Amino acid sequence: xxxxxxxxxxxxxxxxxxxxxxxxxxxxxxxxxxxxxxxxxxxxxxxxxxxxxxxxxxxxxxxxxxxxxxxxxxxxxxxxxxxxxxxxxxxxxxxxxxxxxxxxxxxxxxxxxxxxxxxxxxxxxxxxxxxxxxxxxxxxxxxxxxxxxxxxxxxxxxxxxxxxxxxxxxxxxxxxxxxxxxxxxxxxxxxxxxxxxxxxxxxxxxxxxxxxxxxxxxxxxxxxxxxxxxxxxxxxxxxxxxxx
Length: 244
Hints:
Elements: E1 7-12, H1 17-25, H2 30-38, H3 52-61, H4 65-68, E2 74-76, E3 82-84, H5 95-101, E4 106-109, E5 122-125, E6 145-146, H6 151-155, H7 169-172, H8 178-181, H9 185-210, E7 215-220, H10 222-230
Parallel strand pairs: 1-7, 4-5, 4-7
Antiparallel strand pairs: 2-3, 5-6
């Protein structure tokens, strides 16, 4: 292909400039600071009622919910049962579908409501790939990787809360150890979310290095989980209040 331009779309669910900008000013996010200074930033105009499956499908399709067909976390199937929304709930093509039609290769990793993984010119790894059953953490959920032949190799890149580097814990709370973390339900949740974060990163980083691609879309849920669970611990929004 003569045109070697690549486009990388990274989705940070729950990222908030009100939290990020003060950290950037303190020099704690140098890479993000460099990106924003060399590029363009803006506040995102979102769509109420601000439900993640609805919003991320709007981003992927460029359509509003009444057109793309995903309105929330669940839907009613033909037999009247409530079920989670899936990639089949989407009524219009996503970017990776459009690019496949144009013979461009796409990598899709962890996108919200992307299960079952769609057959694209490239690789699609659904969000369910990063949530194997608790009793069989090495399992690969059926239909979570396309092409399926890559599933075993990609599964080896996933991590669990138990295999996280112990040095990560003090970064979130001084003096925190894996033993202490195991006793606190909220911190155990943090461990699971961290494991998902690193698993998504590992898979995405591996694919962009080993696969040919023109467009890649990677979705990270971590910040959204953390803000929901830990935002209440942020320092008061006073001008002289230190950040947590």
